[in-house]
């Protein structure tokens, strides 16, 4: 295997650690001699929660950024094309340069990043760190709007309405889909196991998603009064925009991890049209909301939550001549 192809295969392998909606990992990589191609896997789409495939595309964007992080850590320069069709993106390497220390740190953060649904520390994230996260998201192609207190309360209402919306038969379908991907052990390599879920929902102003199955992790005794809430947003609603949003989410998440800041994505208000519109008005009608986020300092009393399972490399990476 050539040096270029080996680097691309390693980048695709690193992308297996990317976060995705309910850990569906809805991506597939094709490694060719001179390029790396990213495809969406609609068989792992949440058709009830995400019929427009927005969260699928955002998830693929996080994997795309993770692959870039791996290439950066090896000193590769490259071009990324996002045609918005199949493939969703193509990474074409060029040459190599000395590795920046920041690139190495980002790769390290890729390995330790977690989704932590437990309570956060009773200490606010500093303005310095928030400013850095805002800058990181912007450099990656999206924007991060930090919510004020009144807007946090509006978000809490939007989340509550999103969870309760729809006729009973629709809620039954949503519940059935959740049951497919969440809870128990996950030997098949996808979904959220009970070991990554709190045993009970923590008492918070903004409710976390009720997965309707208890986990095995103690949620903690704190509250979210010291958490920061934000909305990741951007200018457009195309496939390429949602892919970019995923890249920005990955970039800011790795930066947050470096600062011991926990990131909890809140997709429920994005999944329902009228609550998504509520978030858009929080942005002054100036952008398309991609995801709500809870940011908080990790509680030192908590041990690191386990990694969610990952699909084996042969199921998501294909090597071609």
TrEMBL record:
Keywords: Flavoprotein, FMN, Oxidoreductase
The keyword Cell division is assigned to this record: no
Region span, Disordered: 301-321
Keyword set includes Flavoprotein: yes
Example of a GO MF term: oxidoreductase activity
Domain of life: Bacteria
PANTHER family recorded: IODOTYROSINE DEIODINASE 1, NADPH NITROREDUCTASE
NCBIfam families in UniProt: Rv3131_FMN_oxido
Protein name: Nitroreductase
Species whose genome carries this gene: Actinoplanes regularis
């Amino acid at each position: 295997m050539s040096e270029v192809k080996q680097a691309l295969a390693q980048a695709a392998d690193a992308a297996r650690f990317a976060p995705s909606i309910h850990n569906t990992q809805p991506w597939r990589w094709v490694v060719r001699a001179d390029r790396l191609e990213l495809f969406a896997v609609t068989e792992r789409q949440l058709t009830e929660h995400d019929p427009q495939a927005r969260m699928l595309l955002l998830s693929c964007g996080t994997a795309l950024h993770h692959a870039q992080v791996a290439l950066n850590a090896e000193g590769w320069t490259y071009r990324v094309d996002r045609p918005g069709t199949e493939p969703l993106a193509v990474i074409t390497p060029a040459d190599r340069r000395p590795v920046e220390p920041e690139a190495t740190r980002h790769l390290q953060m890729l390995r330790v990043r977690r989704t932590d649904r437990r309570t956060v520390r009773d200490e606010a994230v500093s303005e310095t760190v928030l400013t850095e996260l805002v800058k990181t998201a912007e450099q990656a192609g999206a924007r991060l709007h930090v919510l004020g207190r009144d807007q946090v309360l509006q978000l809490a209402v939007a989340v509550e309405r999103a969870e309760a919306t729809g006729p009973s038969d629709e809620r039954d379908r949503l519940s059935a889909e959740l049951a497919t991907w969440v809870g128990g052990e996950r030997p098949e390599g996808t979904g959220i196991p009970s070991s990554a879920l709190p045993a009970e929902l923590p008492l918070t102003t903004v409710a976390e998603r009720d997965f309707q199955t208890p986990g095995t992790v103690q949620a903690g005794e704190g509250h979210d009064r010291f958490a920061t809430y934000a909305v990741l947003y951007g200018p457009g609603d195309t496939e390429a925009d949602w892919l970019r949003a995923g890249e920005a989410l990955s970039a800011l998440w790795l930066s947050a991890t470096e600062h011991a800041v926990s990131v909890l994505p809140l997709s429920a208000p994005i999944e329902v049209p009228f609550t998504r519109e509520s978030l858009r008005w929080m942005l002054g009608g100036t952008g398309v909301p991609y995801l709500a986020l809870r940011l908080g300092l990790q509680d030192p009393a908590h041990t690191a939550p386990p990694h969610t399972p990952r699909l084996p490399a042969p199921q998501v990476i294909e090597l071609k001549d």
